[in-house]
């Protein structure tokens, strides 16, 4: 099932107490039944991250957003937007024009989350030479094992 699919979320579970956890959080993403896992999936899934990054410059209409997120299908964009809207990261605004226009934009929660995603994206982009070197080394090792 795709990360953008919507599923019934289980009720919150009590966090597992470990020495590493300095704070007593109400949610623990590492727990299988924790609802925070679904929000994490929606935000960090392949399309969720790209949608969130594409909305950083302000309100965008659906077709413009589809052009910005190269390779996304209409169906995946629609599902991704719905999941992110449900979780409170994206707001859908219907403008009373003729014909009606719909725009999507990040909420305050979405902006804060997208800041974190942007930092991660920049970090990865700047470290790609290391990633590519690691991939090449791994691939060379795989060839010798056959």
From TrEMBL:
User: What superkingdom does the record give?
Assistant: Bacteria
Q: Which PROSITE patterns match?
A: HTH_HXLR
> Which SUPFAM superfamilies does this UniProt record tie to the protein?
Winged helix' DNA-binding domain
Q: Which residues form the HTH hxlR-type domain?
A: 34-132
Keywords assigned by UniProt? DNA-binding, Transcription, Transcription regulation
InterPro entries, sorted: HTH_HxlR (IPR002577), WH-like_DNA-bd_sf (IPR036388), WH_DNA-bd_sf (IPR036390)
Q: What's the protein name?
A: Helix-turn-helix domain-containing protein
